């Protein structure tokens, strides 16, 4: 059996066991023991080679685990002290339970430890990828991906209504997939798509879902493939900043079509790099100058002649449906039928003033419906 299969422990028990062990180790400094990290190497179990690992962003109450490291590299983790013994890192990430398969919600402190190890220890970044995940809050929802009795990935979610940070009263306005990772050894096996499917199905009653901005190149590539396979999700998924108001989100599928993501992002193979959507405070990428983004002139019921979409998310009434009024006046991304667009051109050339006035009255209404009200 492995640590995750043993009876669950509370974080207070974990802390007290660690403190007792360090006290006993300090009491007998000359009674050195060794931990065999592999068949060819071992590490002395001394206080100089032990450091605590903080598991959560909010450390109140404190929750730490003792880690054993080689003397020449304190950043490495050779073993962890759990259930009164030292465990190799690989064994902490394993299970003997057949029920742990696929995506399983992280409930126990050991399961949250596994999320920590995957994000901070097991997958150490290498150039040019110099991005580490921030520590996750204790209250954040997590799911661990299990396959072949190993933890190979995870994703975390900011729930609708949860606080955006610890120093304001701002709350998320929609569920947001905040971080996602698949281990390098298990990529190109469709796990990224599996996680996105699970995220969308877990919040099937929500009209809109978010992915934290900015999307990494690999994440953008996986989302692109996911939306190609699941057309019904194209109007649901938005790249968002906290808290996720309409000025802080943009439809991912629409921006893929507009070329807002670089070719490198779209050509990146699935699972080719760690999926990261971990910075909720980074501003959304500004529109390219090549797109000539201008604001919609909703006051005059006209669209900008040089653009199809505005910086605020205003869509041209000639090409897009007006928003569902029950959906906060959101813009739709479905095109008008061809016959309706042709009709608008024919009407403009009619000489009968009565018909002309009727048609022109429709344009201001459509334009006003496309305005994003906050």
UniProtKB/TrEMBL annotation:
Feature: compositional bias, Basic residues: 337-351, 365-374
Disordered, as annotated region: 320-374
Stretches assigned to coiled coil: none
Annotated Basic and acidic residues bias: 321-336
InterPro entries per record: FAM169
PANTHER family xrefs: PROTEIN FAM169BP, PTHR22442
Name this polypeptide is given: Protein FAM169B-like
Organism of derivation: Kryptolebias marmoratus (Mangrove killifish)
